[in-house]
Amino acid sequence: MEAFDYMRPTSVVDACAALREAGGTARALAGGTDILVQMREGKLRPAALVSLRDVPGLRSVRRAQDGGLTIGAATRLIDIETSPDVLRDHAALAEAASWIGSVQVRDRATIGGNLCNAAPSADTAPILIAYGSSVTISDGRDERTLPLEDFFTGPGETVLEPGELLTAISVPPAPARSHAKYYKTFRSAMDCCTVGVAVLVVFAPDSRVVEDARVVLGAIAPTPIRAPRCEEMLRGKELDTALMASVGALAAEEARPIDDVRASAEYRRVLAEVLTKRALAAADSWLQKGAGA
Ligand SMILES: Cc1cc2nc3c(=O)[nH]c(=O)nc-3n(C[C@H](O)[C@H](O)[C@H](O)COP(=O)(O)OP(=O)(O)OC[C@H]3O[C@@H](n4cnc5c(N)ncnc54)[C@H](O)[C@@H]3O)c2cc1C
C-alpha cells in the first residue's frame, strides 16, 4: 500500500474542505471495508483519506412522526439491522443489512460506504430504492438532495463530485397496506450477491389489487435499476399466481446482465425471474395472513 495522508476532521464543513484541498484522488474513509481492500490490492491510490469517525451527526437513525427515517451516512450496518426504528416499518432494510458479509464486517461497514462504493451488487441499494429513498449530499457549504436511483452513474461511480460527502439517506414512511422484501443469491457467505431483487407492493384498501409497486434489480446492470415494465404490469391488477409468473418473466427481460466470474448473464436472468416471483409471493402470503388489515 502506498503512503497517504490521513485526516480526522470534526465537522462536515471541515471534512469537505479536507477532501477538496487534498485533491481529486482524496477519499472519505467510513468503515474501510471496501476502500482499504481496494488500496491493499493496488486498485486505488488516494493521496489522502478523510476519516468520518469524528464527524458528528452522521451516525444515527432518526424516525420522524410520519414514520419516515433519516439515516446518517456513517451509520454502521449492524446498527441498521438492529435499530427498532428501522425494524418497525422498514424491516426489509434491516434484513438486507443483516445479510451483508459477516457480523465483523457489519460492525465496521456503513450504509453510506455501501452506496458510495457503488458496486452494482451493493445490498442496501435495491431495497432503499424500492422504499423511494433519497440522498443528501453536502460540499460543506450547500446541500443537494436527489432520488437514490439517480445517485449511481456506473460501476463504482456516483454523482459525487470531489469535495462532496454523502451525509444522509431519507427513507419515506412505508405506505399503508404495503409489503417490501429483498432477496439475494450468492455463491458463498462472504461473497457479493449474484443477483438481488427488491419489491415493494402497495395493495388497494380491502382488496388484493396492487395499487402501486416498485421492482428493483441489483447486480444485473451497471447500476441498480428499476424494472418499470414490471411495475406497470402489476398496477391495477389482482396479485395472483399468473400475474407473479408474468412479472417474473418480464424482470428477466428487463435485466441487463453481464457474464462474470460469479454467474453467466443467462443464469442471472433466471435468478431475476425467480427472486421477483419469490418477493411477490412473500407480499401475497403477507396479505393472506391478514397483515395488511
Ligand atoms: C468480507 C467482506 C464481505 C462483504 N460482503 C458484502 C455483501 O454481502 N454485500 C455488500 O453489499 N457488500 C459487501 N461487502 C462490501 C462492504 O462491506 C460494504 O460495501 C460496506 O457497506 C462499505 O462500507 P464502508 O463504511 O466500509 O465503506 P468504505 O470502505 O469506508 O468506503 C467505500 C467507498 O465509499 C466512499 N465513502 C464512504 N462513505 C462516504 C460518504 N459518506 N460520502 C462520500 N463517500 C463515502 C469511500 O471514499 C470509498 O470510496 C463486503 C466486504 C467484505 C470485506
Structure overview:
By secondary structure, the protein is of the alpha+beta class. It has three domains: 5-51, Uridine Diphospho-n-acetylenolpyruvylglucosamine Reductase, domain 2 (2-Layer Sandwich), CATH 3.30.43; 61-171, Uridine Diphospho-n-acetylenolpyruvylglucosamine Reductase, domain 3, CATH 3.30.465; 178-288, CO dehydrogenase flavoprotein, C-terminal domain (Enolase-like, domain 1, 2-Layer Sandwich), CATH 3.30.390. The protein has helices at 12-22, 35-40, 77-82, 84-89, 91-98, 103-106, 111-117, 124-130, 228-234, 241-254, 265-288; strands spanning 5-7, 27-29, 48-51, 61-63, 69-72, 134-138, 143-147, 152-154, 157-158, 165-171, 178-186, 193-203, 210-218, 225-226. The strands form four sheets. It has a five-stranded antiparallel sheet, sandwiched between helices. Strand 6 (134-138) and strand 7 (143-147) form a beta hairpin. The chain is globular, with a radius of gyration of 19 Å. The termini are far apart. The mean pLDDT is 95. The chain binds flavin-adenine dinucleotide (FAD). The site of flavin-adenine dinucleotide has 33 residues, from strand 2, helix 2, helix 7 and strand 10.
Work out the helix count.
11
The CATH topology of the largest domain is what? Uridine Diphospho-n-acetylenolpyruvylglucosamine Reductase, domain 3
Strand order in the largest sheet: 4-5-10-6-7
Structural class: alpha+beta
| Strand fraction | 15-25%
Quickly count the domains.
3
Q: What small molecules are bound in this structure? A: flavin-adenine dinucleotide
Mean pLDDT: 95
For the record, the CATH architecture of the largest domain stands as 2-Layer Sandwich
Which radius of gyration do the C-alpha atoms yield? 19 Å
N-end to C-end Cα span: 57 Å
- The geometry reads as globular
Count the E strands.
14
Give me the strand/helix succession: EHEHEEEHHHHHHEEEEEEEEEHHH
Any idea of the CATH class of the largest domain?
Alpha Beta
What profile does the largest beta sheet have?
5 strands, antiparallel
Helix share, percent:
25-40%
